Amino acid sequence: MILVTGATGSNGTEIVKRLTAQNVQVRAMVRNHDRAKEIALPNVEVVEGNFDRPETLLEALTEVDRAFLLTNSTEHAEAQQLAFVDAAKQSGVKHIVKLSQFAANADSPVRFLRYHAAVEAAIQASGMTYTFLRPNLFMQGLLNFRSTITSQNAFYAAIDNAKVSVVDVRDIADVAVAALTETGHEGKIYNLTGPQALTHAEMAEQLSAALNRQIAFVDIPSEAMRDQLLNIGMPAWQADGLIEDYAHYRRNEAAAIASGIEDATGKAPRQFKDFARDYATAFS
67 - beta bridge partners? Predict the structure, then answer.
């Protein structure tokens, strides 16, 4: 049995769909059954679980051999994931595939990178085998700018001309499925990037070509970006973390091209133009 946490999110949904397409028995952990309609598929057992209630984790982990670990990036994420690691060890889980983040490091100024590093260390110390997936900025993250792209033909961020080797969530899912269903991925840390490092202005150009209308990128101060994130309802802790992420990008610390996707799957990663074409209707 394979357990997928975060099963209704962008990564989790893609992973569940791929596992069921391979006729693999999947248990999808969700907080609310009502939000699980998209993953109500053959071979999927949907269970309710709450990272803040360890007893529900133990129930969800019953008879699970391998687990995919993902939570929302909130101020509780580190504690929630550490609780899951403890429950997984108690339940006899053999292998954890954790969605981490590119450049995870305990000494990073970026809160997201620090908490991912702390959870990675706990998993390594647990004695369970593991695979860590460290993706860079998601291409699908551009969907967060959908409202201004559709209404103003523009999007805004505090990143200047820095390049980021953005990665497609669908490629992350392919790697996760490989790690969950195949041998040979134990003890591996896969850095996951796209095949190109792009500026946000270059992304705007490629999005313009896919949409057949001009999309502009506008660089803004960090304070303005934070206000924008708060205005769309993002919690303050998460908004501050994203501002730290973008400062990390702005320092050109996320421009490296890594081979993790090809190493894990044997396939080249998708290009940004593929994302722009496939998601064009989302920005129309």
Answer: 3, 96
The answer to whether the CB of 122 falls within 8 A of the CB of 184 is: no
Tokens representing 120 are 């990675």
Alpha-helical regions (H) of 200-235? 200-211, 222-231
Tokens at residue 148, please? 């201004």
Which pLDDT score is estimated for 9? 87
Distance of alpha carbon 105 from alpha carbon 86, whole angstroms: 21
95: which residues sit within 8 A by CB, 6+ positions away? 65, 66, 67, 128, 129, 130, 131, 180, 186
What b-and-e string marks burial along 236-265, b requiring 16 or more CB atoms within 10 Å of the CB? eebbbbbbbbbbbbbeebbbeebebbeebb
Residue 47 parent element (H or E): strand 44-48
Paired with 28 in beta bridges are 4, 46
Amino acid at 87: A
With contact defined as beta carbons under 8 Å apart, do 55 and 30 qualify? no
Three-class DSSP category at 246: helix
Token pair 């992973």 is found at 15
CB 114 within 8 A of CB 265: no
pLDDT digit string, tens, across residues 155-198: 999 999 999 999 999 999 999 999 999 999 999 999 999 999 99
pLDDT tens readout for residues 29-82: 988 777 777 777 778 898 988 999 988 999 999 999 999 999 999 999 999 999
Residue 198: CB partners within 8 Å, gap ≥ 6? 163, 164, 165, 166, 206, 272
Q: How many CA atoms lie within 13 A of 178 on its CB side?
A: 22
Tens of pLDDT, residue by residue over 134-165, are 999 999 999 989 999 999 999 999 999 999 99
